[in-house]
Amino acid sequence: MEAELARFEAALEKTERELLALKRSVEERIGSRESDIFTAQAWVVRDPSLNEKVRAAVREQQVNAEAALSQVIEGFTNAFDTVGDPYLRERAADVRDVGRRVLGALLQERGAKCPDIPEGSIVVAEELLPSVTANLELNQVQGFVTERGGKFSHSSILARSMGTPAVAGIAEAARLIKTRDQIIVDGVSGVVFVNPEPRVESEYERLDAEFRAYKDGLQQLVSLPSVTADGTPIALLANVNKFPDTEAAFLYQADGIGLYRTEFGFSIRSAFPTEDEQYEFLKRAAERLHPRPIAFRLLDVGGDKQLPYFPLPPSRNPSLSERGVRLLLKHPAVLKAQLRAFLRVSADHPVGILLPVVGGVEEIRGIKAVIAELMAELASQGKPFNPRVPVGAMIEIPSAALMAETMADEVDFFSLGTNDLVQYLLAADREDESPVPYYEPLHPAVLRLIRSVAEVAGRAGRPLTICGEMAGDPQYTELLLGLGLRRFSVSPGEILGVKRAIRVAKLDAANVLAERALAMRSVAEIRALLSSPPSTTPTGDAAPRSTPGSLNALTRGI
Ligand code: PEP
Ligand code: MG
Fold it and tell me: Is there an atom of ligand 1 within 6 Å of 418 CB?
């Protein structure tokens, strides 16, 4: 018990030191107002009542420091969470954050960056945070079940990029599912079975064998070209979140990286990476894929994507708060370090710079002015870069979709981000785990907007790559081809499934399918249309997917 208390004290000291260092770094890079949050958090670390409660729990309940701390933090934050005062609710977030840091210090001190994961485990969690997943021994993990998020949420995208079956949006999963329960994670239909009956188990064994055969079949496609059955080449690129995705993109012979999401590399660190650090890890990816092109996207944080060391003011509506380039333009030091790293990589590799969350020409002009300034700076320092580095805009806000023609004068390429486009067009939160059908990529308005952007980009001669999750779902490939898309960027694990759908598609038939879909009035009609023609993917969308799910009737055993 004394040893536990000593561990707890050491973890508090470590956390306090880290917070004060973070405060100094944020003060230098962002500003003193923003850094105050870490002073406040350092006070929480030394809060006498919190400390006393943890010590009492260790002594009285004979639990370890981690368990005692988790319990006390939960009690504190529950009390704050229920009060109406937004200021106090924010303090609850600070307490939770401090709790996480102290817990991290305790775990590190044990010499275990994360819990030991026996082979074949299923990870059941409230949420899949990139900073946590990055430390898990992922090759041991066979599946994920999370309480938060849906198919299009950032945590699901992360699971998908690992090619691990995942089901998101299972309420209370972490409480209901216990260590050593037997679990089946059906990432295709979004169902989790807990301690299934033998007949369910044997049914899934059969499905598993079929799925492996399907995947083995896809391997034959690796070296075959991505071309439609009637001979039109379709660029098939990869979405990359972290370095191993680059390796997978290489192995699956992607035509390049259509979307390099840099935020994941930031989220696994405890402070902003320096320009040189960014240069090193981006260069590694560019070297691996050389001479194929890479679109490096500027940091898209803000809203629901937060970095622990980049405090942002609380927002009443996170998905509508300042994000992407809008936020970066207000934080020039962060923006410039990243742009300089991109530009330096562009000296030797075909790099494009992609701007997230663009609403119109203003943000593009703002970023291009900074790029011009940095080019002059690099030139004066004798550092090489590509002076004609292509600059592209994400089309993920409806205003950008509607302004695409004007924006084409300002950029070299476009990327169609349907994950956000659907959320902002239909006013439906992509992170929402409730099974409400408002977030619907097949909504007629979405299809019309996609078609319009494809037409505008085609007329303006600007390459347009679709990189939202829709692009990676082979059920949609024929429709997207018919809507005019010729460049797809998908998770590496989805490349072969989409390639197969491309190789069996005929553009004439795709155009007819798209025309029919565009003439329809409701999601239900479009969905029925897509499931009626002979499918381009006979086994359906069998790739492991992260799907919003439910603990269904067969899981009553829990
Ligand atoms: C998108 O919004 O479609 C997209 C590709 O970006 P992200 O999922 O990173 O927001
Ligand atoms: Mg987006």
Answer: yes
Ligand 1 contact, 302 CB (< 6 A): no
For a ligand 1 pocket test, name from 259, 263, 397, 420 the mutation site with the most ligand atoms within 8 angstroms of its C-beta: 420
Which residue pairs from 528-531 have beta carbons closer than 8 angstroms and sit at least 24 positions apart in sequence? 530/442, 530/475, 530/476, 530/479
As a whole number of Å, the CA-based R_g of the chain is: 24
The ligand 1 atom nearest the CA atom of 416: 3
Residue nearest to atom 1 of ligand 1 (CA): 417
Answer whether 256's CB lies under 8 Å from 508's CB.
no
Structure tokens at 554: 């067969």
Mean pLDDT by groups of 10 residues along the chain of 558 residues: 85 86 76 77 84 86 80 76 65 76 76 66 81 66 85 75 82 86 87 90 87 86 97 98 89 97 88 96 96 98 86 84 95 98 98 98 98 98 98 98 98 98 94 78 98 98 98 97 98 95 98 98 96 48 43 35
* Stated length of the chain: 558
**Ligand 1 in contact with 261 (CB < 6 A)?**
yes
Going from the Cα of 468 to the center of ligand 1, the distance in angstroms, rounded, reads 5
Q: What is the 3-state secondary structure (H, E, C) of 336-376?
A: HHHHHHHHHHHCCCCEEEEECCCCCHHHHHHHHHHHHHHHH
Q: Can you read off the two tokens belonging to residue 170?
A: 């299972």
